[in-house]
Design goal:
The chain has 209 residues and is of the alpha+beta class. The chain has two domains: 27-77; 85-208, no CATH class. Helix content is 59%, strand content 11%. The chain has seven helices and four strands, in the order H-H-H-H-H-E-H-H-E-E-E. The protein has a four-stranded antiparallel sheet, covered by helices on one side. A hairpin with a 5-residue loop joins strand 3 (190-198) and strand 4. The radius of gyration is 40 Å and the shape is elongated.
Length: 209
């Protein structure tokens, strides 16, 4: 019988088998892909959040513009008042003296009319009488004269280089004094004043007492 060729003996320590290079590259590419997708997702979320924030700001700005437009239109439509602060005050006093508190309240700015009506309606008659007497003593404050006095004080304190005329004109515009007025008097040694605001239709309204 033919003799079989001798078989090689197995090694006592098996040889380490390294993974094929193709598998390593697949693993690296997959890992990098996950990182890239995570980065894209992060950037996408950031961009979306920024867009959503900008849209929220735009909606808020639009709502404010709409609210301002609504107020403007209401002011244009409100024609109850005088062409000067003094005239508005006179009309207001006449309405109060006639106990026409609803009409009197309409000489106030729109958003304050309801509160004024309630205040007049609930006030004792004696208080109303004293109140009217005080109103009749009010005198219009000259804004430019007040600013002139402020200039003298500021000039001494801060050594202003600005001329008095420029100072007055600048603050007159900054503080919108062409649409504001103040009437004031003394009551028991204290200042009592009434503020007025000029509507877009050139009607003066009471804004504060």
């Amino acid at each position: 019988m033919p003799q079989e060729a001798p078989q090689p003996l197995p090694s006592s320590a098996p040889a380490q088998i390294s993974p094929p290079k193709r598998k390593r590259w697949k693993f690296i590419v997959a890992f990098l892909g996950i990182i890239l997708l995570s980065f894209v997702a992060f950037v996408g979320v950031a961009i979306f959040e920024q867009w959503r924030g900008e849209r929220a700001v735009e909606r808020l700005a639009e709502a404010l513009r709409q609210a301002e437009q609504d107020i403007y239109q209401k002011q244009l439509a409100d024609t109850i008042g005088g062409k000067t602060p003094q005239e508005t005050l006179r009309l207001y006093i006449e309405a109060v003296e006639k106990n026409d508190y609803e009409l009197a309240s309409k000489y106030w700015e729109i958003d304050k009319q309801r509160k004024e009506l309630e205040s007049l309606t609930n006030a004792p008659h004696e208080n109303i009488s004293n109140f009217v007497s005080t109103l009749k003593k009010l005198e219009l404050v000259d804004w430019k004269e007040s600013l002139s006095k402020m200039y003298e004080t500021d000039s001494r304190q801060y050594n202003l280089s600005e001329s008095k005329e420029d100072y007055i004109e600048r603050l007159y515009g900054v503080w919108n004094y062409d649409r504001k007025a103040l009437m004031s008097t003394k009551v028991d040694g204290y200042d009592f004043s009434v503020s007025f605001f000029k509507y877009p239709n050139d009607i003066w309204k009471i804004s504060e007492m």
